Hints:
Blueprint: H1 14-21, H2 25-44, E1 49-50, H3 56-62, E2 72-73, H4 77-90, E3 94-98, H5 101-108, H6 115-121, H7 125-128, H8 135-147, E4 150-153, H9 162-171, E5 181-183, H10 186-192, H11 195-200, E6 204-209, H12 212-220, E7 225-230, H13 239-246, E8 253-257, H14 262-273, E9 276-279, H15 283-288
Parallel strand pairs: 3-4, 3-9, 4-5, 6-7, 6-8, 8-9
Antiparallel strand pairs: 1-2
Amino acid sequence: MRRRRIKPLVPRDAGEARQLESPGYEEGYQEGLYDGGERLLEAAMPGDLIVPDVSVAELVAAGLPHVLHRGIRLIGPEALCAEIETALAAGKPFSVVRLGDGELLTLAQDTVKPAAQIARESPFLSYAGVDAPDGGARDALAAAIRMATVVGVPLSRRPNYQPLLFEALRRNGVAPESLRLTSSMINYSLYESGLLMRLLAGKRIAIVGNSAEALARALRGRGIDVVHTVAPVDGIADASSAEDRACAVSFDLALVSAGIAAVPICVGLAERTGKAAIDFGHMADRLGGVAVPAIV
């Protein structure tokens, strides 16, 4: 059977050309592209496995079972909790960081895409703590990822998530196969499974980030020993200072909710103190009852 060739999308006339160039067209096109392919692949994938460099076209041609052997198994919440407990008992540093679209776009600056384009198309990066273009932030982020004990990665196959993940890592000299991976939603999984409170019980907890005080109140109300809070954290440029401030008081485990800066802060705290640090993200806002501002 002959395969049908799919023609590239080209304008038939000047009116259609103007439509293709109109504001919002590219966003709508990318959303449709996701809904028509990547979303289906995302739904079909097992929840504990990601497959580098597989395309929808390849999946259609080969079938999902034929690419699963290329998968990288993700560490689940129970196994991760047990590893953190073992590390704490042994006095070994343990850092859990998470990569979302903000981190991946930071890595992509002038490696996958021009930094100016990223700055133009992703204004939310400033809210997350990086003012693109910022090659220093990109390099600091890549260095921290290399050192992290476990790295959370997105299961979503939207354009700025998993499809960008592997290329962005490799372009920054980070081999995905060298990393121990979990889901980027591991912060939620630990809480919803009840494992987070097991981890925190009986430990001296430090909290880093702009919602630190609200989270501290909530955790103290549950009997958790919060010994130190560090706030504010003013973007990735403030990561080193936040790390220094957090190290001023002895702790066992740190919860860090500081946007993109959380990645280097978690790694730095674990390495300097020999303790554990978890990139806690918006779980701090959720538990602390802090409203998350809308990003325009």
